[in-house]
TrEMBL record:
It is a multi-pass membrane protein. The keyword Chloroplast does not apply. It holds the Pfam family MARVEL. It comes from Aotus nancymaae (Ma's night monkey). Belongs to the synaptogyrin family. This is Synaptogyrin 1. It comes from the Eukaryota. It is found in: Membrane. The gene is SYNGR1. Keywords: Membrane, Transmembrane, Transmembrane helix. PROSITE patterns: MARVEL.
């Protein structure tokens, strides 16, 4: 355990321990939720600016309110999706039917691939709007670190959600094997 800030402890042993036996709780690892919190939190906290000459706030990404709205919306919905699938991972061992397990894993594959795509769109959109932002809109460089953090964590989220989809495909293959095995070799009653 590594002490953080004198009051919290962090156990880094989980970082390299993703084995086949620990795949059941793979979504409960920190990262998925954290990335989405960083994206929407940084945009909500420092993504809107106001100047002395204007009364309304404007988005730090090229004054485009759609960029800030997209980042916040995707971040919040991704966080809620993480919580939903975390609950499914807790419930997953109690699902007795292989067909129901397959449906759960197929939904996980589809949802994870969809979120990887949404994060890719978000990264491209935010990076493009940040690139074309005018320095005169933000002469004091307020919120620039938060804007860059949202772009960076959108980029990281592409890979985490893609990895989630890949792990779900592996889980689906394991379930298909279990179904075929139980069909070929049914359990016989013990005398």
């Amino acid at each position: 355990m590594l002490p953080l800030f004198g009051i919290l402890e962090f156990d880094p042993s989980w970082v390299g321990s993703w084995t086949q036996s620990s795949l059941r709780g793979w979504r409960s690892k920190p990262g998925y939720e954290l990335f989405s919190i960083v994206v929407f939190g940084s945009i909500v906290n420092e993504g809107y600016l106001n100047s002395a000459s204007e009364e309304e706030e404007f988005c730090i990404y090229n004054r485009n309110p759609n960029a800030c709205s997209y980042g916040v919306t995707v971040g919040v919905l991704a966080f809620l999706t993480c919580l939903l699938y975390l609950a499914l991972d807790v419930y997953f061992p109690q699902i007795s039917s292989v067909k129901d397990r397959k449906k759960a894993v197929l939904s996980d594959i589809g949802v994870s691939a969809f979120w990887a795509f949404l994060w890719f769109v978000g990264f491209c959109f935010l990076a493009n709007q940040w690139q074309v932002s005018k320095p005169k809109d933000n002469p004091l460089n307020e919120g620039t670190d938060a804007a860059r953090a949202a772009i960076a964590f959108s980029f990281f989220s592409i890979f985490t959600w893609s990895m989630t989809a890949a792990l779900a495909v592996q889980r689906f293959k394991d379930l298909s094997f279990q179904e075929e095995y139980s069909t070929l070799f049914p359990t016989s009653a013990q005398p």
